[in-house]
Amino acid sequence: MGQVQASGITAIIDNPDRETELLIGIAQRILDRARQGGADQAEVGISSSLAREVGVRLGEIEVLEEARDRGVRVTVYRNHCSGSASTGDLRPDVIDECVDRALAIARHTQPDKACGLANPEWMAREFPDLDLWHPADLGIQDLIDRALIMEQAGRDADERIGNSEGASVSTEAGIGVYANSHGFIGSSRGTRHSQSCVLIARDDSGMQRDYDWDSSRRFEALARPEETGTGAARRVLRRLGARRVPTGPVPVLFAPEVARGLIGHMVGAVSGGNLYRRSSYLLDSVGDVVLPEWASLIEQPRLPGGPASACYDGDGVATRESALVADGKLLRYVLSNYSARRLGLTTTANAGGVRNLTLAGPSRSPEQLMAEMDTGLLITEVMGQGVNLVTGDYSRGAAGFWVENGEIAWPAEEITIAGHLRDMLGNLRGAGSDIDQRRSIRVGSLLVDRMVVAGQ
Amino acid sequence: MFEIARAQLLDASGLGQSEIELAMGRLAGQGIDLGDLYFQRRVREGWMLEDGSVRQGNWDVDQGVGVRAIAGAGTGFAYADSISLPALLDAADSARAITRSGKTGQVRVQQSALARQRYGEQDPTGQGQPSDRVELLRTIDAYVRSLDQRVSQVSVNLSASHEAIVVASTDGVLTGDVRPLVRLDIRVLMEEGDRREQGFSGGGGRFALEDLMDPETWQTFASQAVRQGAINLTAEAAPAGHMTVVLGPGWPGVLLHEAIGHGLEGDFNRKGISAFSDRIGERVATEECTIVDDGTLEQRRGSLNIDDEGTPSGCTTLIENGRLVGYMQDKLNARLMGVQPTGNGRRESFAHLPMPRMTNTYMLPGKHDPGEIIASVEDGIYAVNFNGGQVDITSGKFVFAASEAYRIRNGKLGGAIKGATLIGNGPDVLTRVGMVGNDLELDSGVGVCGKEGQSVPVGVGQPTLRIDGLTVGGTA
Q1: Last residue of a domain, which of A178, A206, A237?
Q2: In terms of pTM, does the model score above 0.90?
Q3: E strand or H helix that includes residue B2
Q4: Do A163 and B351 touch (CB under 8 A)?
Q5: Residue A4 counted as domain residue
Q6: Could you say which residues of chain A have pLDDT below 70?
Q7: Which of A142, A361, B174, B468 has the greatest count of CB atoms below 10 A from its CB?
Q8: What does the pLDDT read at residue A1?
């Protein structure tokens, strides 16, 4: 394969100010039309992104993709009735039709006292630079070379790696604008560079697949491609020979890649949408103990360079650092303006979810946690949808390792782990120092006191 | 269908035969095995009732063109979110970066023979009045609440979508389709004392919105949702361990989708990374099992007149009397494996690449009465509803999570048990099918299949099945 020419549609990277101005112009036009059409209030979100991705497999290029995505969503309010419309087509006539459709829908929906914009005084006023914009000057060939190096390093790691699902590298830049009829106009921009490698290993026991990945706002901060390739190799090789474990209760150590899901389930259960629908096992739980006394959860929405950092939430409300859980006690819910009003509360600037939530408290190395567990299961993968937030019941497929005397004994698969989220999180025995910084929920390994594992 | 799609997508943007052939010429250069253009426009409309009133309505329109150039096993792909000649040519130039050759070729396309129509072309988003939809949702809410006083929350979602596509490819295909899709979901929360449980039901397909608005249809969904919620209020902890599992007819066919279906998609097998790779002709199920993927069923959620590469939809036998006989293919993987495409090339939208995907996947009926199957089980569980599932196609391990299940003891149905995840191994689970019922049912039309980040509507189905040994993930 020879040199590949990059194409010219790089407006977002070349001139983000101009692209932002363009989106703001569209937003203002939408708000004007909504007002002229009789809306009491209106809000609009617009996004524009450019991504370039390459995939290689077994040393050959498998896919070259250039993705230019744009989207606009408008919501109008009239006499406490709302209507929404969205499109990916930013031509003026399509946008006008969207506004008119939203207005027409608002003539038919029923009054909802909770709907409408958040108080104007809560809108974000300061827009500090959150260090999120680091476009990289990369041609397609740079990405291809990196993917080839990554996959080759993984395939060379061991002769049992006879096959690959490929390696991919992508670079993405996006701009977002949110504006509403209070006169609020916010804009944000961010980059994301990612790489991943998926390898297949085989021996007499069968075939296994696993992967490794990295992602960062700065291309230079990505792991070396060789590291991700050999990381995938290490992860897939250790799964060979996996088998079921005996059925019964055991302690379970969740590796960081699955531990963040546990915290995510708890966040879901204290989120406004589930609370006002009474679809949560944590109703009326502010002030209750939800984690052990040694654990706190701190939200840092303006963390410089953070994966989910933003100056304002999906309602335009200013974000700020705040604890969700302190010393094991739940201090607040996770609320948007709408869900807060449904509950008779005040927004926590969480329209769009939590942003950079970190588990704080004493931590130990994963090896120490394994030693403390002594005999039990280390889980590195969970499968399926068996989490019921209404009741807190948890039952999922899993794969990982059987641990004996504090050390990995053999790989385990085709098992389920079951318990209740309240007990699992309330009785955590320890947290790992191996915090995964790449995700919005930043947590290391978590040692769960006891779950029922089903296998043989 | 093609005429309607062409009028909406091409004529409206001033694209004629010569413009299409000009763009295709850029995809027909040296070294390119296949190039195609995929024009799409989709309008979606949705209404949501919650807490007794219709609080939200949404309308969405998307259109664009995806351009693909395939060289060997490599694909160049680009797309434009507006349909115009300059955007089309730009995307074509980006896609052909997969080859280094600067030469263009010549392509002649002509309209392909019409595929048989499996559904009407009517636009459900344009049917009837918005006020009728709002009224319907309120009527459903009142009806659900009248069924059981333990119902504390009701949410109802009604959605309609209308999609037009045109496919032009360098192998000479020029064709199109118009696809309606409607869906109604009813979710209830029921409370008794300290307990709260959910119930869900819903359905839809490629038909008119009026059919969903028929009281007989939505009253059935409403009753099912309330029945499920009420049953779950009495459910006890599920057992844990390896045991006999009887799966009810219809939606539990999600077992086949996860355990068998994904592993038989052509891309995974061409790459040799499926637990089913190189196993054509082998026995992977008991003799009673015959499984097909059938996109030709009338008006079903997973049905297609043509797939997203223009290949007419088909009925592909995957497992015949227990033997593996076929994979599901798109054009790229069929060509590399030296077989014919099967009409399974699907994509979420113009902004996504096609790949082999399922349509409606189900097992043909066997000879046993369902009552006889339950009576044959000494100790096990009977699972009739599921939330969905997931599979690791390489190791073959799959899971699916029950949302309604019962204990079986001494051949009799016992009390309800809490939703438990079931886990098994795809290549051998069907070798443990002890009995196949005579009661084949297809699901009501709620399936969404996700693969590599792309979602497409699908259907599943099966008769009652007895599986002699599956791991049940309870706590008791």
Answers
A1: A237
A2: yes
A3: helix B2-9
A4: no
A5: no
A6: 1-10
A7: B174
A8: 30
Strands across the sheet containing A357-360: A329-330, A322-326, A296-299, A357-360, A441-442
- In tens, the pLDDT along B401-433 reads 999 999 999 999 999 998 889 999 999 999 999
CATH number for position A124: 3.30.2290.10
A104-113, B27-36, B361-370: least confidently modelled range: B27-36
Chain B CA closest to residue A105: B57
Q: What is the model's pLDDT at position B109?
A: 73
Put simply, whether A256 touches B (Cβ < 8 Å) is no
- Crossing angle between the packed helical segments B130-147 and B215-233, to the nearest 10 degrees: 40
Domain end among A184, A211, A237: A237
Residue contact B76–A68, C-beta within 8 A: no
Task: Flag if A277 and B189 touch (Cβ within 8 Å).
Answer: yes
**Is the same domain home to A317 and A213?**
no
Taking CB atoms and an 8 Å limit, are A200 and B273 in contact across chains? yes
Q: Which sign, positive or negative, has the C-alpha torsion B392, B390, B381, B420? A: positive
User: Which of B3, B8, B2, B471 is closest to B241 using CA atoms?
Assistant: B471
Q: From the CA of A14, how many Å to the nearest CA of chain B? A: 18
* Chain B contact for A390 (CB, 8 A cutoff): yes
Q: Are B218 and B226 in contact (CB under 8 A)?
A: no
- DSSP one-letter string for A381-426: EEESS-B-TTT-EEEEEEEEEEEETTEEEEEEEEEEEEEEHHHHHH
The neighbouring-strand residues paired with B312 are B306
Instruction: From B414, B435, B463, select the one nearest B238 (Cα to Cα).
Output: B414
Residues 6+ away with beta carbon under 8 Å from A389: A265, A268, A269, A274, A279, A280, A281, A421
Tell me, what's the pLDDT at B28? Answer: 84
Cβ distance B130 to A105 less than 8 Å, yes or no, reads: yes
A144/A227 same-domain check: yes
**Residue B387 to residue B396: CA distance in whole angstroms:** 20
Interchain pair B351, A67: CB under 8 A: yes
**Hey, are the CB atoms on A86 and B58 less than 8 Å from each other?**
yes
Q: Do A265 and A190 share a domain, yes or no?
A: no
AA letter at B64: G
Is A6 within a domain?
no
Residue found by looking up tokens 């459903």 in the block: B140
Could you list the beta-strand ranges (E) of B348-446: 355-356, 360-363, 379-391, 397-409, 412-417, 421-425, 433-436, 441-442
Please state the domain count of chain A: 2
- Domain containing A389 equals 248-454
Residue A233 shares a structural domain with residue A285 = no
Domain identity same for A224 and A306:
no
A404 contact B CB<8A:
no
User: Both A89 and A214 in a single domain?
Assistant: yes
Domains belonging to chain B, first-starting first, are 2-233 (3.30.2290.10), 240-473 (no CATH)
Q: Clarify whether residues A189 and A224 are in a common domain.
A: yes
Closest-CA distance of chain B to residue A300, Å: 29
**What is the pLDDT, as a whole number, of residue B31?**
86
Answer whether B73's CB lies under 8 Å from B97's CB. no
- The amino acid present at B462, given as its one-letter code, is Q
| B123 contacts B180 by C-beta, under 8 angstroms | yes
Q: Distance between alpha carbon A82 and the CA centroid of its chain, in Å? A: 28
Which class for B141: exposed (0-12), middle (13-18), buried (19 or more C-beta within 10 A)?
Answer: buried
User: Chain A residue closest to B420 (CA)?
Assistant: A395
Residue type, B439: D
Distance CA B92, CA B35 (A): 9
Domain assignment present for A243 = no
Query: Do A215 and A261 share a domain, yes or no?
Result: no
Q: Identify the pLDDT of residue B134.
A: 96
CA angle A194, A191, A183 (to 5 degrees): 145
